[in-house]
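Hi support team,

I'm opening this ticket because the web form for multi-chain structure prediction keeps timing out on my end. I have pasted the exact lines I submitted so you can reproduce it. The total is 883 residues across two entries, so I didn't expect it to be a heavy job. Is there a limit I'm missing, or should I split the entries? Thanks in advance, R.K.
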Amino acid sequence: MDIEIFGSSYSFPAIKDESFESLQRDIARVRETLEEGSSERAGMFGKKKPPALDPERRLELMDGLVRRYDELLAYLRSRIGDCRRVFESMGAGVRASFEAKVRELEAMEARRAALAEELSAAGKVDAAAMLEAERERVRGLTRNLAEASLLIIRKLRHTLEALEALASDGTIQQDTLNTLRDDVEIYRKVWQYARDMNTLEKDIDNLTKTAMNFDTLLKSNLGPLGILVDEIAKVDQRVAESLAEIQALSDRLEKNQALGPGRIPLGGNILDLLTGVQMKADQLSAIMDRLRSDADAPFDGFELELAASGDLDFHALAANMSALVNHGFQRLSGIEPEAAPPPRALPEPEKAPDTGALPAWVTAAQGAARGDAPRPSGSERRTGEAAYRASISRNAPTLIIFLLDRSESMDTNYANGQSRAAYLARTVDKALYELAVRCSRPDGVRDYFHIACLGYGNGAVRSAFQPGVGGGDWSPISRIAASPARLEDLPGGGKEPRWIDPVAKGDTPMVAAFTEACRLAAGWCDAHPRSYPPTVINISDGEATDGDPSRAAEVLRSLHTDDGDILLFNLHVGSGGGAEVAYPTDDRRLDEHGRLLFSISSRFPPHLLPRAKDAGYSVSPDSRFFAYGAGAELATRFLELGTRPANLR
Amino acid sequence: MIVARFTRPPRRTLLSRSLPKDRGSGDDRYAIGLNGRALALCDGASEGWDGAGWAAALASALVRFEEPQAAVTAARAKRRAAAVSGDWLTSAAQARGSWSTALALRLSPDGRDAQAAAVGDTVLFILDGCEPLSSFPLDDPGAFGSTPELVAENGDEEPSFRRASFSLRGLRRPRLALVSDALAARALAEPRLGRSALWAFLLGASDAAFKAWVGAETDAGRLRRDDLTILAAL
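Hello R.K., no limit was hit. The queue was backed up. Here is the completed structure from your submission:
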């Protein structure tokens, strides 16, 4: 097609001959075929587009394309001189046209000035003023003309330089072609990999089918004995058990096949465990027990796409899977499993406190938290200033876990005459009330928060909510708001909801409470990887009676979402008064128990510092979110601050 | 994008463009009065009981009343009258109330002068064609914090409006754009050389192109994920 500039036509006869156009047509055709064949979908008005290209054919076309580009460039090299002459002629034409138009504009301006003068002389002042405005118009047109001409010349220059670079044997041209060749080579490698992978998948699929039909094959080869095998299974307990396990394994294989290639139904935490560390014998047993006890929903019921986890440690996964299978075979055949020494054992902490009986999965979670096992999502955890920035929304809520000490000592009265248990139950009620009100909108309660409330005392950890409130490990705030245990009349009118009853009985199983919080938070973080991380608020007036909580707290604090580590805030309640310590930066003013709580509390998250300062506290990034010996007022303010994560959207 | 043309002097074309951050219609609300001479844009706080409802009432009053303080009083009275009683949660949430930024713009009858009043971080841009000349009340992209000043729905506290007057005489093609905070911060952060092109895009792009740009800017971390609104007098 010819190009028209200021009424003059320019064409490329010098470089446009039959061989050039033939090459151009060929390249266009190949590119079109490649683009059309890149996906199989219905076109507009339901017209079918060509089917997806066979990979081998695609590779062939791409090779052809590279060859044609080589030819095109060789042709260009032979005709670059002609090309340059056409461009120079266009540039000269533009310049000549520009000068002619400028002269026309000069003449127009002279006519305008003369006309304005004539009108003024005739006393037609308004008409003369109108012609003054025309002066701006002429100036504007001159400016536009100059800019348009410059633009065309610059674009000509740019294209000519690009063509000359292509026609030269310089590195730019070489690099451009090499990139194209590299792309083809990479595509070839990917295609070959996919082909080999498909073959492998087919082989494994065939093996799976054989495994599932293996009993039939066996029995048909056993002849009449096959019938007896079925019969003996009905009466022999051990054989019957192995049959049940075979059934469970078959079901799972069938489910995996239904999920499609590359997917296995494992919970994220368990996958972390499998991929991150070699398991110990007791951990294997725990997993096998869970597999047997809940065959339909193994490991928390999550499904995880292995294909999406690009950074899985495959060797650890393969080793652990092998160990799991061997262990299963040994159990099935009645052999006591060996205690396999782990080649990559969990590093022990410097001080190994007596943790009592932490469940196996807690140590696994610790391994995951240390970074031994990357998150399945593949994204990186934020730290420092970059952490705790996630907006809290209905799509990405956050979790608040209250841990309430309900031991006997909580029966001690505050100065206001109320027992600590009663006052703190009201304070947590108040915090829940505030959260519900903050989430309430004319169209309903928005689930920005998930809530869990665990009470620990009298040898057990259980939900601190009254029966009927919430349900499951955690409840969305809308469910909490909809189901207070009762509404209490306020002295000044109105009603306030009550969710928690004060309880003060028995010992202080704080380690068990942290362990339960670990379990709950780990599952929640797996299900909400992009959310603002959970906040755990532990409220207690005394020391743990079931061991040192340091290790469980360390595990809890190192669980995380992509937005940062879990926040653990500790509120130690006392009688208030002068002994109170709020958000300290060191443990100098604390007794032994205070020092322990200080050491297990999270540092003040940066986004809460301004709020704490506004509330009159002296805090710094080194402060711990921890209060010691808190009286009623400090306890209330602690909870107000601790339940206000930023960025509610 | 909505475009409205006012044919009585001063002839003006108004453009409005809104993109809520997620489902629903977001919490930004605007109002137009006096045949296009009075404009208001309010950004309701997400945390309040009914940020969008309060922003709508406030914007509507700001274009009716010349004095912004009187507009706030009228909007509060209207909301009090419309309040409905409900269960403990509704009552508590209503009592807690709602908050919104406020930005009001009023043009003189000949269109050559403008007066603005603002609380918070909703920003007025004065442009000549697509060249931004000044902005009010903020002109620094670093000044947009997480706790802007807001007008409360409840209580009698008088918000402190910042005020400014602008002469549009001498401008070749005066344009005025009221912009919610995230987009305003993005526009102010644009290097000087790119500002005209950015404004040409913001005022002229199709809805689809605007949405695609917002997606790309948000993904690149250059635009905060928030409700986005532009109300412009062209």
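A quick check on our side: The interface with chain B takes residues 391, 393-395, 433, 436-438, 440-442, 445, 481, 487, 494-497, 646-649 of chain A (CB under 8 Å). Let us know if the file doesn't open in your viewer.
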